[in-house]
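During the no-cost extension, the postdoctoral fellow (Dr. R.K.) reprocessed legacy sequence entries with the updated structure-token encoder. One reprocessed record is reproduced below for audit purposes.
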Amino acid sequence: MGISSKHRLTSAVRVLLDRKTPSSARAGLYIDDVTAISPEEVTEAKEFFPMSKFFIFGHARSGTTLLTRLIRLHPDVHCNYQGHFFTRPPLLQSLVADPEIKAWLTRRSNRWNHGKDLSPVILRAAVDFILERDARREEKTIVGDKSPSSLMNGKAVTLMHKVYPDASLIYIIRDGRDAVVSHRFQTFIDGTQHLSKEDWRIRQAFTGKADPFFEGERSIFTEKGLRRAALGWVQNVQETNEMGKALYDERYITLRFEDLLKSPWNEIRRLWDFLDASTEMTWLEDSLQEELSKNPDSDWQHEKAGDIARFVHKGETGYWQEVFTHRDREIFEKIAGDTLAAWNYPL
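Re-encoded structure tokens follow.
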């Protein structure tokens, strides 16, 4: 046996003995192996945690935060941020992923499990308690979580359905070109640890003299990065929408970020109706307009990195047209053109 083979064998044995898995592999653990909660278990869970549940998914920088701020204005609806139960590793399922925990929850001598795997009950109870505890403090009866789903795409919907087949799923879509521009600036501002050397050179050039980037002479993207971003957006939109319709049917609803800005009252009222929350209160529309006048995310970005944030047009549509070079347009639309057209975004 060669040295490299012996090293691999030693590493494998050590992983088994230590019950540890590299983080890259751990992200995929039990995505397909998690036991789905049964209808009987759902009924039991609702006896203890009766509130209606919903989840908001969306690609990064697609308006999930704005949507959350607006939807929870309703006196019966509460929504909080980024539990990432199904959308970012370590996932909720990691609570029962350890082989020893799995064995404990399924062994025959554990009479509490009545011969079944207790894993889905444990997962459901954990999230139910977290959500309802927060909602009770706000004296509300419908509760949800918003977590961008860019890392898990359609798998996030599958995982959610195994624990919450009875919940509602809201998916917000934004023009992918605006989404990737917003995400790029966000990374320049508060995600600099993810920048490569080439990214840093672009950032420094932008803060030094931004004009060439708005005149089509320079791109804020590397070509590799833009291709990856376009593919990521397409995968998120296509997979999430496909799985949402297949698994949730009438309990799945979509909206476009652009329509939310254009007709906020109509869109939010449509979502409240979807959640069975009454919209008869006359003051709701005024509260909505007042909340739309605020932009806490923009304020924070200006405080964090004003030299870049002053160029970022928060809450606007079509900003990509000012930033994309001709080459950027070609790259993005070659990859994402069909998806853009399917959601009525002009090429």
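The longest helix spans residues 223-248. The beta strands are 52-58, 77-81, 142-146, 168-173, 252-256. The remaining legacy entries will be reprocessed before the final report is submitted.
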